Amino acid sequence: MALVFLTMLCSFKLTPNIQFTEELFSQITQRYNQAASERVREWQSIIEANQSSDVQDQLFEINRFFNRLEFKDDIDHWNQPDYWATPIEFLATQAGDCEDYTIAKYFSLLELGIPNEKLRLIYVTALRPRQAHMVLGYYETPNSIPLILDNINKRILPANLRRDLIPIYSFNGDGLWLAKSQGRGRQVQSGGNNSLWVDLNERMKNGF
User: Fold this and answer.
1) pLDDT of amino acid 178
2) Burial class (CB in 10 A: 0-12, 13-18, 19+), 66
3) What domains does the chain contain, in order, with CATH numbers?
4) What is the pTM of this model?
């Protein structure tokens, strides 16, 4: 994965709720196969089954569901140095990198009704092995230590217990925060243009 420059991160209206329609499932089957469509149906079932669950259960179920998929670098999977897959692309192809796990969890939790301001995609340096990495943070309050949803360490832990991660910056649909400590930080930007984020949202609006 490649780190995106700070000046490129953006905020704009998020993609509307995902519409699970028979037309969508038919398109998935045509583009991929029937098994891909069934995996997306399973995702729909997880979201529907957990609408009334408490937040801890929602975090657990979404983290568990996507962490079953295979890790694969973008260059091997998409023949591109950096590609942000939609949740449907991630499920249909059964593989992705850390950004794809994080993005899929982020949009799934939004579907479950968790407010955008409680979720951030966090760029970090993972120390074991040392590499650029992305995780999802859940913030109960704006100043709380976030819970970390990760595809490497699959346990959901507070950021202060993840000494193997050094936060760099975080973002969501509302803006960009520079890292300060334990995943918290100072908001520094609320506008701009991140082509990967824009492209991802446009593909989601079109169903994929």
Assistant:
1) 65
2) buried
3) 8-205 (3.10.620.30)
4) 0.87
